[in-house]
Design a protein that fits this description.
This protein is globular. With 221 residues, the protein is mainly beta. It has a single domain, classed as Lipocalin. It is built from 3 helices and 11 strands.
């Protein structure tokens, strides 16, 4: 597989990148936070290399955690800011060779309706999840995924293997995927063991495994 950069030069937390002087359009203040994108990450592989067909899809990232016991009360958490870069020779989705995703965990929010919470409850949960018990976004405002293996089958299924860097830890992730050639949408669904990244809070009542859903809409890239 063609690679633009070595794994040692992953997307984020490179501290060589530029930072904005003001909050982003989403309302999340990223002042002082290393940025993804062609300008901010030009030294780390997110800029367009010469003669390379790069696509920047629209990315959505969702986490679903649950409580242990008879009342799981799933909590739906999403990131309002994430970016990706894909290398698709000939512009063909099936020919996808390179994928990297940058996630601003500092943008983490909670879906109140899906989580069965009122606005106040959702905001309280959001602030707790952003804190040191979970994502610790003050110290680790970003996370990143860099694919090491991509396989897309003719039946619209596939598998992507890569390294997820979060909370200062790096772990390998294997994600089954589905894709639609017509809509140019890829969806990856997998389970993540939060304890592998140091999220050990509430193990007696909160499940260790978290469902993760990542959607890449190439048609809007």
């Amino acid at each position: 597989m063609k690679r633009w950069i070595s794994l040692a030069s992953l997307l984020v937390l490179c501290f060589m990148v530029g930072c904005p002087d003001s909050p982003t359009e989403s309302g999340v203040d990223t002042t002082g936070v290393p940025q993804f994108g062609p300008e901010g990450m030009s030294s780390s592989g997110m800029a367009r290399p010469a003669n390379i067909e790069r696509v920047n899809p629209v990315v959505t990232v969702k986490f679903v955690g649950a409580h242990k016991g008879d009342k799981p009360d799933p909590r739906h958490v999403f990131l309002t800011m994430a970016e990706a870069q894909m290398f698709m020779p000939g512009g063909e989705l099936k020919a996808l060779e390179t994928l990297r995703i940058g996630m601003y965990t500092i943008s983490l929010d909670v879906d109140p309706a899906a989580s069965g919470l009122d606005k106040e409850g959702a905001e309280k949960l959001r602030d707790h999840l952003r804190g040191p018990d979970f994502f610790n976004t003050k110290q680790f405002p970003t996370a990143e995924f860099d694919a090491t293996s991509i396989k897309l089958n003719d039946d619209g299924t596939g598998e992507i293997v890569g390294n997820l860097k979060m909370l200062g830890q790096t772990g390998e992730v294997t994600a089954p995927v589905t894709y639609d050639i017509d809509t140019k949408v890829i969806e990856a669904k997998f389970q993540l063991d939060r304890t592998k990244f140091g999220m050990n809070y509430g193990l007696e009542r909160i499940e260790e495994m978290v469902d993760v859903i990542i959607t890449l809409d190439v048609s809007k890239g």
